[in-house]
Prior knowledge:
There is one protein chain. It is built from one helix and eleven strands. By secondary structure, the protein is mainly beta.
Amino acid sequence: YRVTTSDPQDPRERYVTNTNTAATSITIPATVTINGVTYKVTRVDESAFASNTNLKSVTIGSNVMVISSKAFYKCKNLSKVKINSKKLTSIGSKAFYGIKNNALFYAYRSKLTTYQKKIKSSGINTTIRLKAIS
């Protein structure tokens, strides 16, 4: 994690990299607490999981607003992405390029169309399926 703003009214961090490269399932939390300060995790950094061939599923926390370019680039076994955020404003170039074909994305029903457009415009090279979080 890296602190992006330490404003005591709205402390924020971004998820920089995955230290457990053997993990098959990752959850990017909504918040993390460091030295007694609770930070919102608002961004998945560029290339945070790039080329992680063990990763099969990821859950994105409710405070994430940005998935940076190539965040999940060439995670060839990534087949399930659950987006718990209703605040996602940006998905960077090739963020999901090279993931498993027919990957299943979950999002809140009210965000399905918006997120599908963002995923497709990011330059994904596979077919995706979207389902509503129940």
